[in-house]
Amino acid sequence: MVQKFLAFTGLTPAHVFDSGRTIFNSSKIAILDTSGYFVSSDFLKFKSADLGLGIQRRLTLDFDGNLRLYSLDEKTGNWTVTWQAMADPCRVHGLCGPNSICSYGSGSGRGCSCLPGHKIKNQSDWSYGCEFEYNLPDDDRKASFVSVDHMRSYGYDYQSYGNSTLESCKEFCLHTLICKGFVFIFESGVYRCNFKSQLRNGRHSPNVIGTLYVKLNVSKKSNVSSSNAVPVKEMKLNCSSLGKNTIQLDRVYKTNDGNKFLNFLVWFACAIGVVEMLCILLISFLVFKKPNNSGPEMQGYFLAATKFKRFTYAEMKRATRGFSEEIGRGGHGVVYKGILPDHRIAAIKRLNEANEGEAEFLAEASTIGRKMNGSEALWIEEIIDPVMMGGCERSKMENLVRVAVQCVEADTDARPTMREVVEMLLGHEDSHDTA
Known about the structure:
This protein has eleven helices and 20 strands. It is of the alpha+beta class.
């Protein structure tokens, strides 16, 4: 844990306890605010390159072990790096595996290569590192050193000597089985040897001060000299066999289903809302539905109440040939000439207002039917246009209405013949003259 924090912040081990970053303290906190400023309780601070409000950001530990801050470009939908812990990716340890060298160039990026005398272990994955190139028999091998300039190997120091010569360092490593090599470096005014039990986290750069001496077993017949410096050559991976060496990881990612009870409440509320809407629509349909007054039941009721036959709109339209011949106008509509199916000529009034006019018409028809049956006195003023009342006698008008009503009886057998009609009209004239 401590080494991971060191890799991200660049702190040396001497500064670890001073900053409070230890494996014994897990109470430290860190905050990345909305403006892109990061601060932690162990004094680590940094800010985004696009410092400011209104930008969505994420802090991610990437696959290469580097910690980076990304900002979202809402126009393109791309995430851009606005801060990273390590500008040099080779400072993130373990990328190239053991017995390898990590080098970084601004144009070529990060590259890995094997230490002298070693070969890559897995052609498709550098994390496996490198291994010895040759396995020599015991009777034909000798220990020797191959140097790599501007090279450091971090970690796994089991011993360190100061104010030492190169030869004394070689001699010590040759006679120690655990020694895999050493770093010879000039610092603090003296030469120092850092002996390595493992060669890991190798970093090569022109800015690195120090030389790594790799301990190798070479053939006794070999002319390899410990003074030979081997240049670092980057090696490329062979991904053609990637499919054969691919290992499928058995991982199951649990998705967040959220609060099931809350989801149930939401769906229940939606169902109740749908039921309420259906009820409102049904009630509205029943309330505002226009009653059908042309059914057989209504026809029978109308005939029983008024003794008049009720015609449908289609029948009246056929009788008037589409309301084509107008013969008069009234207060609530136009009167047209029509011919009924039994060839009788009729005056058909087309109402302007279907609801109000029809109700008044039905009331008038009912009144006429009752009065003609003698249930009450005949009020001729309610039937005849008041304009006509001044130019005709009341008794003649009553007789005409009585004869007209008989002529439109629903029962054709009850209707008077033409002779009877003439006799009723003439009989009324005679009685009137005698009186």
